[in-house]
Amino acid sequence: MGSKKEEVRRKHIRLHMESTLTARDKVGVQDFVLLDAYTSESAFLDNLRKRFSQNLIYTYIGTLLVSVNPYQELGIYTLSQMELYEKVNFFELPPHLYAIADNAYRMMCSELNNHLILISGESGAGKTEASKKILQYFAMICPMTDSLQIARDRLLLSNPVLEAFGNAKTCRNDNSSRFGKYMDIQFDFQGIPVGGHIISYLIEKSRVVYHNQGERNFHIFYQLLEGGEEELLAYLGLERDPRLYKYLSQGHCAKESSINDKNDWKTISNAFSAIDFTERDLENLFGIIASVLHLGNICFGVNHQGCATIPVTHEIKWIAKLLGVPPSVLLEALTHRKIETQTEEVLCPLTLELSVFARDAMAKAVYGRTFTWLVNKINSSIVNKEFTKKTVIGLLDIYGFEVFDKNGFEQFCINYCNEKLQQLLIESTLKAEQAEYEMEGIEWEPIHYFNNKIICDLVEERHKGIISILDEECIRPGPATDLSFLEKLEEKVGKHAHFRTRRLAGPKGRKRIGLMEFQLFHYAGVVTYCTKGFLEKNNDILYRHLKEVLCTSKNSILKECFLVAELQNRRRSPTVGTQFKNSLNSLLEILISKEPSYIRCIKPNERKEPSRFDDFLVRHQIKYLGLMEHLRVRRAGFAYRRKYEHFLHRYKSLCPDTWPHWQGPPAEGVERLIKYIGYKSEDYKLGRTKIFIRFPRALFATEEAFEFRKHQLVAKIQATYRGCLERRVYVKKRQAAIKLETHWRGVLARKEMERRKWAVRIIRKFIKGFINRHRPLCPDNEEFVVFVRKKYILNLRYYIPTNVLDRNWLVPPGILENASYLLWKLCRRNLVRKYCRGITAERKALMQQKVVTSAIFGGKKEGYGKTLNQPFANSRLDEGDINPKVLQLISNEKIQYGIPVIKYDRKGFKARQRQLILTQKAAYVVKLTKIKQKIEYSTLKGVSTSNLSDGILVLHVSPEVNKQKGDAVLQCEHIFEAVTKLAMLVKKENIVNVVQGRLQFYISPGKEGTIVFKTGPEERIYKDKNGQLTVVSVRMKS
Ligand SMILES: Nc1ncnc2c1ncn2[C@@H]1O[C@H](COP(=O)(O)OP(=O)(O)O)[C@@H](O)[C@H]1O
Ligand SMILES: [Mg+2]
Fold first, then answer.
1. Is the peptide bond before 1005 cis (omega within 30 degrees of 0)?
2. How far apart are CA 469 and CA 932, in angstroms?
């Protein structure tokens, strides 16, 4: 949206440029620098006239603007015009004062320095208009905030108020400024107008009591009468008709068609309320204005002594009322003078003349000081009171050079002021510029110009100048008159080339100079001044008596204007001339400190008529404004110059070599820079410390490039800054994350610490418990014990024996031995029970046999253990193994058990294969079909075996039983089984005897044999030399 608008604007400008470029061909040149015959005054004049005839009132000389007063509305100050000129380099558009204003404003904004727009030209040339237009331009185009709107409005509205009180119609100008005005517009760093300050210079007070034919008093009087409300006028005791007032009607043109007092009154009424004037202020202010009018109408009389008298008319009453002083006191002060002797004050009546003089002095003083008060009041309303740094653009609109038919002290001052301003212009442009070229070593052909310093000196030089002579004459004792002043002038400066009097002029000039007159050859022309009133106006005497009265005034404005302190100060205040000289010098100091832009105003004719171009008049102005010299300097010179450092500093970004820093000397940097951006050799010159650029065009191109570059740089800065911001955010987040992490780790660590602490506590307790484990249960070991128990019990489940034979049992800790034992028992019992339950009858019988075996052999005979898990067989012989004959023999007995055996003969110990068959009643040793030996159990004395691993079994029989053959010595493989079966069948206790070493057996009555049991490397049974049966068995590994 914005760019589109900008595009339209640019297009508009382009069209405008094209049209004006073609127009320019027709209507002269818009910059005098482009004039071919630039040394010719006529060509200059022609160009100006040509353009003026086409209503082109502005023309440049370089950056200086020449303006010709059109005396008509041209429609070139519209809002769209302002927008057109805003932010556009001024060569791009036709000349305009907006371009000058915009340029100054933009320079101020970019370089943050103070600027000054100096508008000069003679009275009626359009200075005040120009300054108003510039102010409006700033008010319009500057950025604005709501809060500063008020400041801006006040700045704008202060103007009509000041004009009402300080401007008047003169022969030259219907709105002639009768005071000098210097106004600072203050801008803040963003270029927003934030306030202002006004300095006023020498208001032409004499106008209050006297003005020439065809002129008027200050506008305010007429505006008040014309526009003031009925009540207000009644309150002030005024009539509407200005012609009724002597002070207003001397020029015979109180009513002027070109001036609309009624409208102006409305404007200032509005302005007053905008710039902080209270009702009370206005009452007092208009009271003063009205009392001045009443003062003018006082009727004087003369008494018989020739002294002035004033009848108590209603004027006196009104003045007394409005100024708040007693009428009688006022009357006395107007008609008497107080003369102070050493001892007393004496009242001395005044002559009519002196009394009128006193009255006029009072009117002037009251008006003059009220004007100063007004300026101060406006200042207090528009000044920006903040202590921030501000830059200013100064606008100087001061009374222009004036030549009337009769020129008095005022014209003398005004023209002196113009001389000074011309001096400034010369100093800052022509002279300074040429001096600069010389200093910078730029080739230069000096251009001659008239330096008016000589005239300034003539007026202001100390002790020698006209002002000093006037002052001397004023304070000189003895009768000093205007004529004696003239004589003094002749005596002291008579020889000066720019001064002439009637006496000093030759016969030719004599006619044109009056007796009381002197001529000054101003830079702008010759002016003849009449010395009449010089002394009086320079003294500006207000009788002390009147001052005293005014000091007692109840009117608060007057009270501020006339301070009692002033009465007490007996020192003579400086004269008007000297004051003016001093204030001018301080003004020049203000002006010199700022970057100036110039607007030179030209008046095209004396009749205030549009479209009338008086060649003679304009040519004269061209001459004295020094425009030709200016053009010549411009043509030969350079539009722009800048110290290398500053130039480089501003534009260094345009060349990669100089950006961002240039290390070498600035001059070389600048050279490199301008080569890079393509300056042609005729475009510039390099001085000692500065670069000089000949045409604005080159500079504007550079400025434009810089503008473009700035955007790039800004983008870069923005990017960097954004990066910075992002990084900052990132770092912040990272820090936050780290913090979180740290805290979280802290939390974890604390948890871990707690856990370890807990662990330590537990371990410690554990250790303590362990140490105290043997003590009776106490807090120290309680938990440990519980733990051990629990642990043991829990562990135990993995070690529980699964069968009765499993003897494994988890070794209990000391404290649990008892419990463990109980448990073990429980467990065993349970196992046994389970085991028992699971046992069949058959197996039970078998087990019972084993029990018997255990009872017999347990721990007594080697090899027992090995056989434990070998189940006993029912019999080792089947039915078939036993001979049927044998079976027949013992058929009445049931065979319980049978086993093959080896029988050793009792005598020879010969080994023979036999069967041992056990029945319920007896044991039979069977040889195939024969029963070799039957041993009834009742006769069985015992059964012997050895304690070794042999299978020898001896059945002992009682010798008493004859039938018996003696003890049977047998050997069988399953000895434990066979013996057990036998023992169980015998049913006698302790029948089995396990012997060690040897055993005796019965062979026959009275005869016994011996069996020796031994261990040896191999099993052997043999009859030894002693006739004993020796049984060697292998020692079994246990
Ligand atoms: N740019 C202008 N356009 C139209 N009229 C102008 C212009 N400048 C001056 N005038 C007319 O000329 C008169 C005198 O101008 P002014 O600025 O008061 O002169 P100065 O201040 O130089 O004595 C104004 O009252 C106005 O009528
Ligand atoms: Mg003016």
1. no
2. 197
CB of 292 closer than 6 angstroms to any ligand 1 atom: no
Query: Which residues are part of the catalytic machinery?
Result: 123-124, 128, 173, 176-177, 400, 402
644-737 is classed CATH 3.40.50.300: no
- Residue from 55, 57, 65, 69 to probe ligand 1 pocket by mutation (most atoms less than 8 Å from CB): 69
In tens, the pLDDT along 476-498 reads 887 888 889 999 999 999 899 99
The CA distance from 371 to 223, in Å, is 16
Give the Cα separation of 78 and 72 in Å (integer): 14
- Rounded Cα–Cα distance for residues 1016 and 1037 (Å): 13
Q: Which atom of ligand 1 is nearest to the CA of 119?
A: 22
Q: Is 127 labelled a binding residue?
A: yes
Task: Indicate if the alpha-carbon torsion angle 426, 429, 434, 435 is positive or negative.
Answer: positive
Sign of dihedral through CA atoms 793, 794, 796, 802?
positive
Query: Torsion-angle region of residue 86: left (phi > 0), alpha (psi -120 to 50) or beta?
Result: beta
Predicted local distance difference test score (pLDDT) of residue 20: 43
Using CA atoms of 955, 959, 963, 966 in order, give the dihedral in degrees to the nearest 10: 40
Q: What is the pLDDT of residue 24?
A: 41
Give pLDDT tens digits for 964-999. Answer: 678 889 999 999 999 999 999 988 878 899 999 898
pTM of the model: 0.65
C-alpha of residue 830 to centroid of ligand 2, in Å: 137
Which residues of the chain, if any, have pLDDT below 50?
1-2, 13-25
The domain 843-1034 is placed in CATH, from the list 3.40.50.720, 3.40.50.920, 1.10.10.2910, 2.30.29.30, at: 2.30.29.30
